[in-house]
Specification:
Blueprint lengths: L1 H13 L16 E12 L5 E12 L4 E11 L5 E12 L5 E18 L5 E20 L2 E15 L2 E3 L2 E11 L1
Antiparallel strand pairs: 1-2, 1-9, 2-3, 3-4, 4-5, 5-6, 6-7, 7-8, 7-9
């Protein structure tokens, strides 16, 4: 009889370890997309600059996330603008169409033309950027993006630089 009582009390104490509901086998802390594309910039300094871009989006809330971007654009005279930015984004889902707005802070590197002494200056500046665009869900894991961004570079050559950048690209969404 004593063994039956000990087994009963042992099972009674173990009920707190047992669950009547199934536990989730996986949970997701966010949604990650990584992509790249073609960029074209209208710069205050020189002609149109063309090049590439890479970006990531990590959405940690239903309509909020962070975005990081890298742009490298250059003109035919080997002048270039290279930017590294990170910031917040707000987006909405309308079926396959996902418009978004973003605000970013970062660093920009500008490669100046060759001076009379034969040297080329390559200087870095802080910048802020704002913009928006839209993603289109081609497949659950493939997104196509059109994006516009306005940048404000601080203390650029005694004033400021304000390029407008348009990017067309695609991203892979990790599931």
């Amino acid at each position: 009889m004593l063994t039956k009582v000990v087994i009963f009390l042992g099972l009674l104490g173990a009920t707190s370890l047992l669950h009547g509901q199934a536990s989730p086998t996986a949970s997701r802390t966010g949604d990650l997309k990584i992509g790249g594309g073609f960029s074209s910039a209208a710069s205050d300094y020189g002609d149109r600059f063309n090049g590439g871009a890479a970006y990531f989006d990590f959405d940690f809330r239903p309509r909020l996330g962070i975005t990081g971007e890298f742009h490298f654009v250059k003109d035919q005279n080997d002048l270039y603008e290279k930017t590294y930015e990170i910031g917040g984004r707000y987006f909405r889902d309308y079926g396959r169409f996902v418009p978004f707005v973003k605000v970013l802070y970062g660093r920009g590197v500008f490669n100046f033309p060759v001076n009379p002494d034969g040297f080329r200056a390559n200087l870095a500046y802080n910048l802020v950027a704002a913009g928006g665009g839209a993603d289109f869900k081609v497949k659950p894991y493939l997104y196509v993006r059109a994006d516009w961004e306005y940048q404000q570079w601080f203390q650029f050559a005694g004033s400021s630089l304000t390029p407008n950048i348009v990017t067309l690209g695609a991203a892979y969404r990790f599931r």
